[in-house]
Amino acid sequence: MYHLLKGLHEYLTRKDEFSIIILGLDGAGKTTLLEKIKTLYNDTPGLTPDKIGPTVGQNTGKIMLPSTILQFWDLGGQRGIRNIWHRYYEDCHAVVYVIDAEDRERLSEGWEVFESVLSSPQILGVPLLLLANKQDSPLSLSVEEIRHDYEDWHQRKLESARRSVRQGEGENEIIAKKERIASLEVMGISALEGTGVRAAVDWLFIRVQNSRRQERHS
Ligand SMILES: Nc1nc2c(ncn2[C@@H]2O[C@H](COP(=O)(O)OP(=O)(O)O)[C@@H](O)[C@H]2O)c(=O)[nH]1
Ligand SMILES: [Mg+2]
């Protein structure tokens, strides 16, 4: 009887755990976002922005949602650290890419890295969310402007690839990527002030639940 009740209790209180990785260039606001998520969802608040230094290695944070635990991994964005992102791809359930919408000078560098994330075969089927951060700043590009800027950048890149003799990708990869871009979710946030952060977490929560269901039915 005890075991039966224990089993039932475990079943009813069971929480599925999902890993979500937060990627982006250094300075995009990944750590600020992670700490804001912790502050919004946990009893013990995350670090305030004045306590956040450049990320060396990784930061993690867990939040509890109904029958779900989301574990966030903020991986550093410096060039050297980016080389290890792929090690996390196999085990993640969603990817968040943070772009600094205020830093126009580094947008194309940000898209270059975003493109490599988007093209990674291990995460082709994984929900991907693009966050246009720093919306509190009057200098920031809006969500629409960010989407257009990326599409323009991508178009230019395709054209220059067509002109060059050596093509890295086949037609199928290009089509798969086009579909991914067309269905890409872009949201505006201010990691500093917290605006839009709950909407982003809600989106992730729903998407990881849905992809788990698809897994079961396949
Ligand atoms: N105005 C503004 N600044 C932000 C925001 N998010 C992060 N920052 C600032 O951007 C800088 C880099 O943030 P950080 O979280 O360390 O970036 P990371 O390298 O991607 O982890 C810091 O000075 C942050 O205070 C935001 O939403 N708005
Ligand atoms: Mg950081």
From TrEMBL:
| Source organism, top-level taxon | Eukaryota
The question of whether Mitochondrion is a record keyword is answered with no
- In this chain, Mg(2+) is annotated as bound at T31, T55
Q: Which GO terms describe its biological process?
A: Golgi to plasma membrane protein transport; intracellular protein transport; protein localization to Golgi apparatus
A molecular-function term among this protein's GO annotations: metal ion binding
Arranged from A to Z, the UniProt key words for this protein are: GTP-binding, Magnesium, Metal-binding, Nucleotide-binding
Q: Which residues bind GTP?
A: G24, L25, D26, G27, A28, G29, K30, T31, G77, N133, K134, Q135, D136
Say if the entry is tagged with keyword GTP-binding: yes
Give GO cellular component annotations, separated by semicolons.
Golgi apparatus
State the family named in the UniProt similarity comment for this chain. Belongs to the small GTPase superfamily. Arf family.
Q: What's the name of the protein?
A: P-loop containing nucleoside triphosphate hydrolase protein
